[in-house]
Queue: 3 jobs
Job 1
Amino acid sequence: MPIDWKGVYAAATTEFHPDESLDVAATKRHFERLIEGGIHGLVVMGTVGEGTSLDPDEKREVLRAGIEASRGRVPVVTGVAEYTTRGACRWAAEAEKLGADGLMVLPGMVYKAKPHENLHHFRAVAKASGLPIMVYNNPVSYGVDLKPEHVAQLADEPTIVAVKESSDDPRRITDLFNLTGNRFVILGGVDDLALESILLGAVGWVSGLVNAFPEENRLLWDLAMAGRWQEARDLYRWYTPLLHLDTLPTLVQCIKLADAEVGFGSETVRAPRRPLVGAEREEVLRIIRTAIATRPKVRA
């Protein structure tokens, strides 16, 4: 289905059995829960979805689960996070054949590419399929920075249509608009900068904590879109301690722990990630449980 890249896109978790094997049924149920909770789009196998931890056959299964769960209700976007450009091109082409609606493309994993190498990577993947692409810039996590002046050089690639800006610097959004006008759809990708990103012109939000709090997440979006800023700020202040979890190195474990606490899934992650333990776990649980205890009524 066509994508306008607007609204709340869930960076969805992938569910595993206790032995870390893929739990396709639970993953599909989780996708369905997110869609019922009001998300506008589903992103599978991004950072939160542990895409780089999945084998090729598992990636196919997760993408199929997303497509089956959606049933055409929301677009399904797959992460493209591979170690080589050739591998990224191969998965982009296969994802198109499997029925994905779009791609969220990351730089090559592990290698810290220089700007010209990074641009080559995105151009190559763009030519590997006909699917629309959201470029995912997250230098904090991946050590490769696609700056606004680099994004501008991709304007001649027709299938590169959106940018998920996760540099942790909301000034980048204004810089992108000043350099590229309305050429790209801009989405915020840092949960605890969501409201700031919207105010600066982002028309989409790829969220991690939406996995555990889809209704509240959607309400925040709707309030901001309606210009009901005081109500949006009040909700954001409740939500922000949770949203801070999205910026930690252990964001996947934190989000999955939140999923488990609200009954939406398991906290099982795939090694080398391990579940939170000790004081760190207790502090994250305190944040989650405080939010649950003070949860606002969800009504637009």
Job 2
Amino acid sequence: MIAFILRRLLTLVPLLLAVTLLVFVLMTLAPGDFLTPIKMQRDVPAGLIEQLENDFGLNQPWYVQYARWLGNVVQLDFGYSWSFKVPVVDLIGQRLFATFLLSLFSMLLAWLVAVPLGVLAAIYKDSIFDRISSFLAYAALSVPEFFLALLAVYLAARTGWFPLGGATSIEHDFLPLGAQIVDRAYHLVLPVIVLGIGGVAGLMRVMRANFLDAIRADYVQTARAKGVPEGWVMFKHVLRNAINPLISSLGFAFSGLLSGSLVVEIVMNYPGLGNLIYQAFLREDQFVVLASILLSCVMLVIGNLLADLCLAWSDPRIRLENQDS
């Protein structure tokens, strides 16, 4: 187990180098840089622009800039965001927690709803419940997230039941701890529901198909022939094998926590990391973009590692020590 974890963590190094190098080259090939808006201002002295280019290394070849940035990253210095006038670490730290809560709770909502619905739809195959749940799943998959977000904003504006945007209220910092938790949860309700609906539809269909395949397996017929209670067969044997593919997808879901909420954050005015990355791309703020890509790669590897560990815990037949990757 320890050797498997170490191998996975070691694969993180070449992955980070390759991805960040590719992103750095692409951003270098794009016209302009994050100092372009300043260069377009007539009242900015040319000496100041030249000094800023020297400070950020923009007057050097791209490979020198990349090596310089990489050396700073090793020292845990991710650069300075000229667009937002703050260090990159502070900027990402301000937005990361909000996006993490939004994506995490939407993923939990999707799992808590989709797994029971998928199991019941498979057990009662071709029933009224199965047909209705399948219809709702296809309907949810057909509706884009941005449209659901617009409907949620319209609902909040018409009824006043929910806030129109933001992660907290204005007086959040002056509230006691319990009230701060309630305030943040209140602002999360609509965004979590909007993000969770699409996840529920997709996971439910996968869970239903996996459960139906597992029901037809030979070990299920053997268990029934031995007189094992039906409930024990369904939830001890069938469910445990049918849920394995969903556990395997946890790694990609975990890595998608940063960017998966981009559309919802923009439409619902939620101050998250996805919206920040989008603005950084538009402003060619390469240090923010590179730090975000770096964080996404780390979360992808960690997410896949956690998924493999959960899969090994769920299915004793899997032995991670014998795997090559």
Job 3
Amino acid sequence: MRTATQWFELYGESHQNPRNKTIHWLAIPVIVVVTLGLVQAIPHPFGGGAEAALNWASVAVGLSTAFYFRLSWTIGLGMLVIGASAVAINAAIAAAGLPLATVCITAFVLAWVAQFIGHKIEGKKPSFFQDLQFLLIGPAWLLQFVYQRAGVPVETWHHALRSEG
């Protein structure tokens, strides 16, 4: 299994152009929120609508967070906070009476168009064409830059031991 740093280096290979990076800083957070919003809009048996705390999106956050915690405890914790925040944003959209699925589909399409424009500028295909796991790596790749700035380590001791052995 690759370490977080290895994933980020691979992802970064197709994200060198400053304009492409800027587009990713804008589009990836939108894609995270609205993808979870689309999942959140699916009727569920947990009681309540899309604004309920337990819904398919919160289940998806839990499952994806397991992937992130395998990479790094700090990345896992950060992505859990991001995922929970996205679910809360979508719950607020639904509670305000806005059509959650329509809002999310519109933003999803616009953000992905922007991503593909960024990759056209970059001159390289999106990483997920190589490996679908890169769809999960993109948001964590941005988070690691925030962590670098804040002095938060990305790799944790148990991951360093695993990569040595």
